[in-house]
Amino acid sequence: MIKSLVTGGAGFIGSNLVDKLLSIGHSVVCVDNEFADNEMFYWNPDAINVKADITNYEEIKNLFNSVDYVFHMAAESRIGPAILNPIKAAEINILGTNIVLQCSRESNVKRVIYSSTSSGYGSNPIPNVETQPDDCLNPYSVSKISAEKICKMYSDMYKLPTIIFRYFNVYGERAPSRGQYAPVIGIFLRQKKAGQKLTVVGDGEQRRDFIYVGDVVEANIKAATKDIDKKFFGEVFNVGSGENISINEIAQMIDNNIEHIPPREGEARITLANIEKIRNLFDWSPKMNLKDWVKPYLI
């Protein structure tokens, strides 16, 4: 039986991946410390569930024994909290990733899929393509892009196969909706349900590339299991829809009861993924359309 380990496996994207891996017959080790400011954590009872911290080498190293694939999703995953506590963001995202990679190396893991972020593109012109230079505008993106470079080093120096995914704005089932830094679609749906005004940051004309969590899960599984040339290990791949939409347009899809709140520091004005690289190598393309996904929630 194939054995996979998912860090951050009780969170939004991680729990969706755990469920899918179990459904296709993997044995799954789910590691999470419930550090994220989520209203719920999702532990699948069919997984081997371990509450542990990825920054503690001694605590997690034995969990990697006999593991085939590692999906590293645990992180300080939001820009706002990272700005407030850059030391903690660096500890989790840089040190934690290094420890996960070292544990994977010592256990001869077949492949590590690292979940990174499109925020590393910063103010680069769109569409964002993997060959663009880094432009990190905040402590979150600095810490995540630094960890990308550690992944590449482990592939180059230690021959540990790694694949780096830069997610754009992920939405879907189980997305957190608490706090101003939660993903915007989850916030809007919660506010509508509560009869509150939808809080649009800034003028709302900033545009984002939104990608469905189920499509992200599929990308991870393909990247782990597809036979590819080893020259691609340590490389970055965009995971987005290849389309973008303004925050105002999303708000108007959900409710016209809107109020604007002050803009935030350290965020790009526009994001848009070029997804040719992942489409060509992993035969992956997004299947879910944002407007179709939102419709059932508006009834």
Describe the structure.
The chain has ten helices and 13 strands. It has a seven-stranded parallel β-sheet, sandwiched between helices. The mean pLDDT is 95. The chain folds into two domains: 3-170 and 212-239, Rossmann fold (3-Layer(aba) Sandwich), CATH 3.40.50; 171-209 and 241-271 and 288-298, UDP-galactose 4-epimerase, domain 1 (Alpha-Beta Complex). The termini are far apart. The radius of gyration is 18 Å and the shape is globular. α4 (86-106) packs parallel to α5 (139-158) and α6 packs parallel to α8 (247-254). The chain is an alpha/beta fold and 299 residues long. The longest helix is centred in the first third of the chain and has 21 residues, at 86-106. The chain has helices at 12-23, 57-60, 79-84, 86-106, 139-158, 184-193, 213-225, 247-254, 276-282, 290-294; strands at 3-7, 27-32, 48-51, 69-72, 111-117, 162-167, 169-171, 198-201, 207-208, 210-212, 235-239, 245-246, 258-261.
SSE map:
Blueprint: E1 3-7, H1 12-23, E2 27-32, E3 48-51, H2 57-60, E4 69-72, H3 79-84, H4 86-106, E5 111-117, H5 139-158, E6 162-167, E7 169-171, H6 184-193, E8 198-201, E9 207-208, E10 210-212, H7 213-225, E11 235-239, E12 245-246, H8 247-254, E13 258-261, H9 276-282, H10 290-294
Parallel strand pairs: 1-2, 1-4, 2-3, 4-5, 5-6, 6-11, 7-10, 8-13
Antiparallel strand pairs: 9-12
Helix pairs in contact: 1-7, 4-5, 6-8
